[in-house]
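dumping these here so i dont lose them again. two proteins, back to back, each one seq then structure tokens. dont judge the mess
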Amino acid sequence: MSYRSGLVALAGRPNVGKSTLANALAGSHVAAVSPRPQTTRRRITAVVHGEDWQAVMLDLPGFQRPADGLTVRMQATVDGSLADCDAALYVLNAAEPVGGGDRFIAERLRASKLPVITVLNQIDRLSRDEVAAAIARAALLVPFVELHPVSAREGEGVEALRADLPQLLTEGPRFFPEGMATDQTEEELAAELIREAALLRLRQEIPHALAVDVQEIEPARHGVVVRAAVLVETESQKGIVVGKGGGMIRDIGSAARSALGRLWGTEVHLDLTVRVRKRWRDDESMLTRLGL
């Protein structure tokens, strides 16, 4: 029996649920999820395994207009990754009207000639009639192999989508061993989940200026110790992240520690600091260090 594999781009505008879908398909928490724009900043690999196939999902930053050094790199990641891929999942938010960003991405996908499965996410927010109307709108955007309405958050429709992934794949090698959900390092996974915990708790103006630099992960007597710095750009932002009496950073640390413990199956001791790094989003050396 031949084996099928391929690189599959998760393409969509920011905040349509691409990272939630990547986690659901991989069966593991490999990508940060929050309602904030720019939650996904770099290419995240989520590996989906079948009996005789493997789809390597590339969770890409949302298509956007570059505004600084960080977003320039993010859009370059999208463009370069799309060119490398064998197929795409075109992810739309079923609960929102089709917008200019959706149509722009549709144009890029049509030009790429890649086989596409259209994924209409967040159907849990809609009635049956509203889902039908959303499917009709989405069907006009790009030629597709299949169209799947799903709720990645609730798991509705995800197994049916997973079963259709082999249609996008061609005969090829197994890229990752069975059971491996991502090629991210432990440091990258820790940074993702610490930043997710912060994004879910901070005000709207902070997330774009926030990054996480994981400096060390080492064994402890029980579990592991993770030492990391939360980076912001101003002293006022630092005050917000630290919080009154250190309450905010404690909450962030507690949530991230629990998430990492569940992911790694061990006790996690998290040592978090907050540091000001002015204009880090335009600092090429810092962007490289952060893997962005």
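---- next one ----
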Amino acid sequence: MSAPTTARAGRVVVRQHRRALRVTLALLALAAAATAGLRLWVAGSMDEARCFAGEPEACGAQLFGDWVTPQGFLALALQWSLFALMAVPPLIGAFVAGPMLARELESGTHQVAWTQSVTPARWLAAKLLLAAALAAGTAAVLTAVFRLGRKPVFSHEHLGWADRGAYEAMGPALGAYCLLGVAVGALAGLLVRRTVAAMTTAAGVTGTLLLGIGTLRWELRPPVHVSGPGTDLSHGLAGLPFDAYLVGSGFTTTDGRRLPYDACLQPDTTTPCPPDVTGWYAEYHPATHFWPVQLLETGIVLALAGLAAYAAFRVLRRHCP
């Protein structure tokens, strides 16, 4: 295919989905403007240095009560936005599977493009390039917006560096999952060829991978292990870094067995701890593990996306040689 034909196919895809492009750009602009406005409100109503040092009166003007401040309002808005951020990759997968591919295959309109000097492979490539560019751009903007808003409220609940949602939105992992949604959507659309069924399949598979890999991510790097003698576990945990992500804690016995953290809190025992307890242990990930785990997870997700995209082209070639 010549370069003009390739460019023409790309322009056709853009025209077909210009409404989705406009809606996406409008939503991104709205998210950026809202976050920037809240961030300026927080900056203008609080002394960040004194507020973070534990002086409540420096945290800004109060609203509606003693505990609602601009800082708290921003934190609440970001916490709710995490639900939307986690839904972005499945939504991208559903859009690619349904409106971009399955709908054309179901109605037969793809034949028009294929009879106008556009091969099936070029037709699919043009659609995936547009979807990938939109997905990567969306993820980059959302990551920048989230990091901007999170800066003054990083210590709030559910906004820690290891929390689900916040973790994905703070690095390249979100972009990788969005590209995975594109690839899975393409494969689902070509295999199912029914708009609603393809959308459901793509969203379900992408969401399952997003949650499943997220559950296993902390197995990618060994945690830091600390231990000590005695049965005062709270004293040991107090010595961990303030931003540590605790993955396990408990007690050790004379024969090396590990007991859960509540082994010394059983109400039906006559002694505070089992007699063979000799010490405590804790395993955690420090904040320095964020980027190594992010990069490893991003690489795994991109590899899965590449495999799904390759499978989509193989399916297309088998059905449309």
